Amino acid sequence: MSNATEIDVLIIGAGPAGLSTALHLVQADPSWAGRILLVDKAVHPREKLCGGGITRLGMPLLRGLGVSLKTPYVPVREVRMVYRHLVFAIRDEPVFWVVRRDEFDHHLARTAARRGVPLQEGQAVLDVRPAADGVEVATTAGEYRARVVVAADGSRSTVRQKLDWPGSVRMARLLEVLTPESDHLPEFQQGRAVFDFSPMADGLQGYCWDFPSLVRGQATMNRGVFDSRIRPERRRAGLKEILQERMAARQRRLADYPLKGHPIHLFDPQAVFARPRVLLAGDAAGTDPLLGEGISFALAYGQAAAAEIVHAFAQNDFSFTGYKARLLAHPVLSQLRVRAWLARMAYRFESPGMIGMLWRLAPWMVAALARYNPACVPVQQPRLVRVG
Ligand SMILES: Cc1cc2nc3c(=O)[nH]c(=O)nc-3n(C[C@H](O)[C@H](O)[C@H](O)COP(=O)(O)OP(=O)(O)OC[C@H]3O[C@@H](n4cnc5c(N)ncnc54)[C@H](O)[C@@H]3O)c2cc1C
What we know:
The protein is of the alpha/beta class. It has one domain (about 5-385): FAD/NAD(P)-binding domain (3-Layer(bba) Sandwich), CATH 3.50.50.
């Protein structure tokens, strides 16, 4: 690698995790802009399969970075939590915001560029090798020797694969369709989203979602199915059949819309999150096994990774042995541990009777969680309302 470009910090992946890492570094000290490089295989605005729901966990992180939601969004004021005929609603002003990821990530990337962060797009990382005093990275456009690498390259992280990262990887399965709708629907007029857990009785370890969103100004429902698979020993649910049935109940044929799927790498508190000179962030590190929320957590990973990098350069110690403790102590990321535990509890049941019994308790459990661990229920003052 004699022609390799030398760089202090190479951030691989310009999604919310990589961009948040860069933004937090230049916020800590603007001179970092001259010491870091972000590379991404795609070019913003790039497609990213995602419901686009950003909760209150992420908003303070955006505010802290001086980033406002400048892209179009739909505020969700009521979330309906459904299990068959048992429905309760969580209300807030709003409960969460629905963005389009191509627009949101593009906005973050432009903000980073305005703050001096160099971003090389259309450049895929092909290989990553540990080297003396650094890490060698080969991309489609050239080679780098970095003192530190941040792997923010998503659930199927190339960096993890190339470095033979220790530990097993658990993936949630997700399918998503977009259906154009009239903006007169209550989902748009009242800002209503649905999390429907009824297919848990068919083996789904998750839920189906309906989020109102705006695709290039057109009211569009973002619909999908999330299967956590946190209990891999249980039988697999048929995701396509579940979504098909759900669309039919809404007088839609699944076959009429492009169906897309993507996995989510699940957070595991026992996992390894760093090795000397390499940090994992965002989906590459693992995210929420309960609901599949990842945008806010990716922003938080970026904050933790930036703090770890500043510390490493100050101490001239790149072992990153303290990174995991930093992640687990982070006010937002510590929720991943709670959610992993809740997911293992919630998705153990398959019998409709047991799930129904649990569901009757769910509003009280949500209220109790909101009281004792407000960060776990990212709603200002949740107003739980029984519906139907
Ligand atoms: C169907 C679906 C619905 C979801 N809905 C929600 C939701 O409503 N709310 C929510 O909070 N979360 C949701 N998530 C999760 C959320 O999308 C992720 O958690 C989030 O995108 C993680 O951000 P990230 O920056 O870690 O990774 P990503 O956003 O995946 O970004 C990774 C970046 O790395 C780049 N990259 C990958 N490989 C390479 C390579 N070899 N070289 C260079 N660059 C590379 C990619 O181009 C990409 O830009 C959903 C996920 C799915 C699949």
